[in-house]
Amino acid sequence: xxxxxxxxxxxxxxxxxxxxxxxxxxxxxxxxxxxxxxxxxxxxxxxxxxxxxxxxxxxxxxxxxxxxxxxxxxxxxxxxxxxxxxxxxxxxxxxxxxxxxxxxxxxxxxxxxxxxxxxxxxxxxxxxxxxxxxxxxxxxxxxxxxxxxxxxxxxxxxxxxxxxxxxxxxxxxxxxxxxxxxxxxxxxxxxxxxxxxxxxxxxxxxxxxxxxxxxxxxxxxxxxxxxxxxxxxxxxxxxxxxxxxxxxxxxxxxxxxxxxxxxxxxxxxxxxxxxxxxxxxxxxxxxxxxxxxxxxxxxxxxxxxxxxxxxxxxxxxxxxxxxxxxxxxxxxxxxxxxxxxxxxxxxxxxxxxxxxxxxxxxxxxxxxxxxxxxxxxxxxxxxxxxxxxxxxxxxxxxxxxxxxxxxxxxxxxxxxxxxxxxxxxxxxxxxxxxxxxxxxxxxxxxxxxxxxxxxxxxxxxxxxxxxxxxxxxxxxxxxxxxxxxxxxxxxxxxxxxxxxxxxxxxxxxxxxxxxxxxxxxxxxxxxxxxxxxxxxxxxxxxxxxxxxxxxxxxxxxxxxxxxxxxxxxxxxxxxxxxxxxxxxxxxxxxxxxxxxxxxxxxxxxxxxx
Amino acid sequence: xxxxxxxxxxxxxxxxxxxxxxxxxxxxxxxxxxxxxxxxxxxxxxxxxxxxxxxxxxxxxxxxxxxxxxxxxxxxxxxxxxxxxxxxxxxxxxxxxxxxxxxxxxxxxxx
Lengths: 609, 111
Prior knowledge:
A: two-stranded antiparallel sheet; 62% helix; globular; B: alpha/beta; Transcription Regulator spoIIAA; 6 strands; 30% strand
């Protein structure tokens, strides 16, 4: 009765919220969204880091680092710019769309940094436009103009948000090396799409002045990246763009008519949002879905870098944090489509690298970057300058950006041991994608229904790799069994069994170490009280994505506490070592469960590989 | 498991070798108690020759730390790397036990 009454009073007073209650509610919300620490209680700040995600640097450091991140990210504005060029959008419209894009980047950064409900990782990860959606975006622009780009961007964001909670389970179907292939092919497709705008059959021929501008732009970016130090190296793309503009101006590529558009643009102005229609196209679902998977995998990788960077005791990715981060990434792309931005967004991997290099990973920096993007969105003159960017500068900047994407994809592919299965998956996948690029007519050999969906290099490449990956999984899983007698427990024998099997299966040493510790620690913990008679069976299986160990013994189930027992419990209780052992077993495995059937207990350990 | 002992002034350096598990932990704990009872209250435990340590071994370290604190002594650890460091990390034992990167630093801090 009392509770019900309290409920009524509470509900009735909601509309008459007092000012102090409202401010208290806002403070509570902000505390949960921003002030509450995001790093685990056991996290230790690495010595290379000056400010971790939870630290609060002073305003000077926050501002100077925020500006650096905005400068670093600015290169990716070439993606929406080129999509606008593909539909011959007028300069004032392009400038407006870029302004909207700046505000979307601000919102995307905010929802990544603030933890609102199930969204946001809390790490210092600004949003940036991404190459992932560039090639599909160009395709959409040519088929249905900007409304189709916006509609398909919303679709891609929704797919990314949907796969966020399933990323770990998708590993079997979308393994690391295939993610690398997708990223590599995104780079290839984006680079070739950019080159077609200058060398394609319908493109205006490139003149000598444009060659000079492109060479100076790309050359300065590359030279600064290789030989410069400090700020000049970090901002090499922005400096290269400025040099490109200067040379283009000198070479007469920026004519007075274009400059007059910049001169007419106001210093301050409110961008127009969502004044375009939306449309969707079923044949573009495959390329956008693949691009969104690539964006999700890339975001997960960048979030993992952030976790590692902030915690010297980091053991393995925290999938809850990664799910929140990828979810916010997907939502940011949905917002980009709704707001009318030509292209989706993604967490900025170069920003994570910059934070690592400077030792400043406080999320305050991302908030400052979000504020700068927001303010830039209200400066039409700046976006007008970007909108008139000569094609020689745009394409040079694109070449610079896609180089990193392609090499990043290659590195991810090469991070795996490339056995015969993976060699064919990757080799034939790349070849299939390049076939579509070099011989576009080859698509006509496919049935028309498939050609409509798989008619891009990205989709063809990914589809071949995914199908081959599934076929080649036949015969991958291997199993071995060891029996242990209660009276003859020999930890060395268990260790030797697991190490020999791990070596024969090509398992990583660190995974075998964890599996070995798990079994031996379990045997120790149960041998005195829970396992009194009979034989224990240790069954180990491996399928290159995970090592699974099932330990079955006649007896009772061991407690596997989520929290570490107190010092007093460990030290003063006779059960101390066993309680601690249960906790360590839980922390040691990626997944652990136990059950009893017919008087026999089975503990399943799972270790991701 | 073997235990090598050395003196560095007033500090006793204890270097266990091999595995500290349920079969050897008690023996190791008993040896630490003997040292304490013989008046050696400043101990450095160098774990660089340890290949494995289980929860039973960690428990003995916590018991030893408490006993030494009761006698106003000091217990310091060093030589923790590789797989043993990973086990310290998953149990968050660096919060509970003073750990130094080198034997020299441990000796200086045990005095």
